Amino acid sequence: MAIGDGGPAADAVRAAAGRLRGGDIGPRRDAVDELARLGDEHPDLRPNVAEAVCAFVREHLARDEHPADGGSDPAGPEVRRAALAMLADRLRPVPDTAGPDTARWDGIKVDLTGAVVDSIDFTGCRFAQATFADCLFRGATTFEGARWEREAVFARSVFACDARFAGARFGMEAVFGRARFHGRARFDDARFDGLAWFGFGEEGVWEEESWEDLDDDAITEMLGPTTVIPWREPNEADPHWPDAYLMGEYQSWEEGGDGALFRGAASFRGAHFRDAAWFWKVRFGAAAVFRGASFDSQVYLDQPAADLTEARAAATDLEQRWPFGWTTVPADDGPARLTTDAAVAPYAHELAAAELSVRLAGLRILDALGDARPELRAEIVTAACAYLRMPLPFPVGAADLDDEQRAELAVRQAAQNLLTTHVRPAEADRFWPDAELPLSGATLVDLDLSGCRLAYADFTGTQFHGVTRFDGGLFTHGALFRLPDGGGSATFHGPVRHDGADLGEEHLALSGLPRQHTARATLESLLAASPAP
Questions:
Q1: Which CA distances in Å does 139 have to 81, 107, 121, 264?
Q2: Averaged over 49-55, what is the pLDDT?
Q3: pLDDT tier, 118 (very low <50, low <70, confident <90, very high otherwise)
Q4: DSSP letter at 502?
Q5: Is the Cβ–Cβ distance between 313 and 293 less than 8 Å?
Q6: Is residue 431 pLDDT above 90, yes or no?
Q7: pLDDT: which is higher, 480 or 365
Q8: Looking at residue 500, what DSSP letter applies?
Q9: 63 contacts 135 by C-beta, under 8 angstroms
Q10: Strand duo 326-331 + 334-340: pairing
Q11: Which tens digits make up the pLDDT trace of 253-310?
């Protein structure tokens, strides 16, 4: 690490940074205090002190949410916490001595890429720029009231704890693509001045790139890195599943990959999105509350769990996609209000209800509504698929499921039945032609698509349990069982019947790449590589 232009103070920073890494706890804590003093007395060395702290924290390699022991450095966790606490203290404004938006150490860049962070309090901190990509947060973690002057990057980060961002302000892009929130996530009253990116695909490959001029390593680098923290989610087996692929400035509907995942409740009450609010392929496993939020630009938020009561949306020429059952109505006092869409009554957000019985009733309403109104069928199918993509908090194959868990699976079976019933031309009065099933990352049990006829299905990262049937099915525009590089594969935990199935071409999003297999050949290769059920 290069520190300053030399001189005694720069040498002292190097020496103190070296003492962080070994020895007894006392001298190492003294090294933290020495770094703080040097930064306080030498403003030109503050970026170097901050990077010395970040580099030390990044060296911790215990990449597991619940490590079995403290590793070979039992004092390390305490020293890392002390070093980060010191840095956080310097990144906060001091009442009466600095402006309300000016930290004691102003203009500091923080890079904790790939770090393991235990119990950190960044409340009220001011970041010039901060990168927490691939970061694992454990213990109490808060960024409440924090402010970012430039980008805030949390791509692929894991919060194995509650994530608190209430009142935070993001001055430029806020990137949470493929982040995982295992506890509650609170973004109440947060302000996103730049792009709020929780959806799939923050890494990009542009359309003008010539694939013929790229080798395999170059393609892999451009498509984005694989997941650094092990992907150990219930019912999800492929460690490469969350990898994102993007072609063009915005996403294609045919791509695999995943957005952020929220296991617990997520709250964006009163949040203000001044730029695009991008939640495409986000998966909410519990309530997703956007009450009173305001949206000034493009929106993609189609998850059925979202509650948009009293939310507002400004007029814009850009697309605004809302969950089925929500719509905007003009308001005399400013931006349009989000309200229940009377045009799709009697459906009224039943899939967002906490009660399983209400959700089951909602699926029956959607079923009847699609039969009666063909123009709504595509949206209803998308809503049912989004419901099936919601993560389950328990393993489907467990032998000791309780009554509530079995009831949850029964509702999901009803959602599957809504889809499979309407893609069989044999039932002419109930056939919904040209259906597309965006089921990436879904958990499916005893899926029966035998004799189906549909346009397209995305099964990247999908988990199939029980007996899965494709026999006699026809996919006119193909199916996708994996990502373009072979990762993100569907996983089968039971027998699969596919006699006479025509699954079309392996439908890859990147049209410049060669298509060497039919989707059926891909399916058979996945089955051959899977252990016998």
A1: 11, 27, 10, 16
A2: 92
A3: confident
A4: B
A5: no
A6: yes
A7: 365
A8: T
A9: no
A10: antiparallel
A11: 334 467 899 999 999 999 999 999 999 889 999 999 999 999 999 999 989 999 999 9
Residue 516 gets the label, from left (phi > 0), alpha (psi -120 to 50) or beta, of alpha
pLDDT at 202 over 60: no
* Residue tagged 């399983």 (tokens): 356
Q: Which helix (H) or strand (E) holds 288?
A: strand 288-289
Nearest to 463, CA basis, from 234, 279, 226: 234
Does residue 520 or residue 75 have the better pLDDT?
520
Half-sphere exposure at residue 346, Cβ-oriented, CA atoms within 13 angstroms: 8
* CA dist., res. 323 & res. 3, Å (int): 51
Q: What amino acid is encoded at 42 in this protein?
A: H
- Top mean pLDDT of 79-88, 200-209, 408-417 is at 408-417
- 49-52: long-range contacts (C-beta < 8 A, 24 or more apart)? 49/13, 49/87, 50/87, 50/105, 50/108, 50/109, 50/110, 51/1, 51/109, 51/111, 52/1, 52/3, 52/13, 52/16, 52/17, 52/20
Dmax (CA) of the chain: 85
Q: Say yes or no to pLDDT of 59 above 90.
A: no
Tokens of 33: 């205090």
**Backbone angles phi and psi of 262, in degrees to 5:** -115, 110
Contact (CB, 8 A) for 523 and 499: no
Q: Phi-psi region for residue 292, left (φ > 0), alpha (ψ -120 to 50) or beta?
A: left
The 10 Å Cβ neighbour count of residue 279 is: 26
Give me the mean pLDDT over the 154-162 stretch: 90
Range in 180-194, 321-335, 406-420 the model is least confident about = 321-335
> Could you tell me the pLDDT band of residue 210, with boundaries at 50, 70 and 90?
very low
Which residue is listed with tokens 């029966």?
Answer: 448
Looking at the DSSP bridge assignments, the partners of residue 138 are 118
Predicted local confidence at residue 255, as pLDDT: 44
Q: What pLDDT does residue 23 have?
A: 82
Residues in the chain: 533
CA distances from 468 to 444, 447, 465, 496 (A): 9, 5, 7, 5
Query: DSSP class of residue 157?
Result: -
Rounded to an integer, what distance in angstroms lies between the CA atom of residue 439 and that of residue 387?
Answer: 9
Q: In this structure, what token pair is assigned to residue 40?
A: 């306080």
Q: pLDDT tens across 407-417, in order? A: 999 999 999 99
Burial of 317 (0-12, 13-18, 19+ CB in 10 A): exposed
Going by the DSSP 8-state scheme, the letter that residue 123 receives in this structure is T
Does this model's pTM top 0.90? no
Residue 336 β-bridge partners: 313
Distance CA 228, CA 208 (A): 29
DSSP-based helix, strand, coil % in the chain, nearest 5: 25, 20, 55
Report residue 390 as tokens: 């919601």
112 versus 7: the higher-pLDDT residue is: 112
What six digits make up the tokens of 355? Answer: 């009660």
Structure tokens at 79: 């020293």
Sign of CA dihedral 225, 228, 229, 234: positive
